[in-house]
Amino acid sequence: MIVELDVFSGRPNPTWSVSAERSMELLDALQDLPPADQPSRKNGLGYRGFVLCNPDRVGGLAPHIRIYGGIVTMTDDRVQSYRDVHDIEHRLLLQASQNGYKTIVEGVLAGMPDP
Predict the structure, then answer these.
(1) What angle do CA 12, 14, 18 make, to 5 degrees?
(2) DSSP readout, 27-79?
(3) What CA–CA distance (Å, rounded) separates 103 from 93?
(4) Who's near 97: CB < 8 A, 6+ residues apart?
(5) pLDDT digit string, tens, across residues 15-73
(6) Cβ atoms of residues 34 and 83 within 8 Å
(7) 100 SS3 class
(8) What does DSSP assign to residue 2?
(9) Which of 2, 21, 49, 74 has the greatest count of CB atoms below 10 A from its CB?
């Protein structure tokens, strides 16, 4: 599974491969999410969350998964939105920081509203 930190416009976004152990943690967190009342809001510039590329459909999940603003959007033949009740977005921010993108993550966190 590949994770993309969707943050830049006009240049490549940071990406990293997820270890088998972390993939299992993510897959567990992506299970049994409650449906969202509305899809994720779109944001043109700056931080737009994370995109998980899952071409092998590991865990039976969609090949394209976006996590942003408390919403998990899975795209396959159709688009389904769920609430991020397992705090996946913050887990991925921690992973991004651990993968060498600490400065970017600090900027993202500075721009996020307090919970």
Answers:
(1) 135
(2) HHHTSSPPBPSSPPPP-SSS---EEEE-TT-GGG--SEEEEETTEEEEESSSE
(3) 11
(4) 105, 106
(5) 999 888 888 889 899 999 999 987 666 666 788 999 999 898 888 889 999 999 999 99
(6) yes
(7) helix
(8) E
(9) 49
Beta-carbon contacts of 44 under 8 Å, excluding residues fewer than 6 positions away, are none
Q: Where are the domains of the chain?
A: 2-108
Q: Which residue type is seen at 20?
A: A
Tokens read off for 35 = 């449906």
d(CA 89, CA 84): 8
| Encoded tokens for 10 | 């006009």
Alpha carbon of 28 to those of 32, 42, 43: distances in Å? 9, 26, 27
